[in-house]
Design goal:
The chain is about 80% helix and about 0% strand.
Length: about 110
């Protein structure tokens, strides 16, 4: 029996690959931009880093979504099912502010 990566594993792999490629392209674009237009108020390293982080984050996000959509696994693993149930329970748990508002409303009526 071979190990099949879960959807979460595929999402992490897509994020890392997309972030790496995006950061490399961002460095190239940032280097070109600083050579053509000057470094600006942040300096050379700050400007190139800003391009790299922005490009890496956006490309990594879309690569993560794409790797989840393209996953061939149509069945949900037990680990993914447990994580989804835990997330739904956390989502349905009232926040402390909602709890206090509900208490105040019940006392006033």
């Amino acid at each position: 029996m071979s190990y099949q990566p879960s959807i979460w594993d595929k999402a992490k792999m897509g994020l890392i690959m997309g972030g790496s490629v995006g950061a490399c392209l961002g460095c190239l674009i940032g280097f070109y931009s600083t050579m053509k237009f000057g470094p600006g108020p942040r300096g050379y390293l700050g400007t190139i880093g800003q391009y790299a982080l922005g490009s890496g984050a956006s490309f990594g996000f879309f690569m993560m979504i794409g790797s989840c959509i393209r996953s061939d696994d149509s069945s949900v693993s037990a680990e993914d099912c447990f994580a989804l149930k835990a997330a739904v329970e956390r989502w349905n748990t009232p926040t402390p502010m909602a709890y206090y508002l509900a208490q105040a409303k019940s006392k006033s009526t």
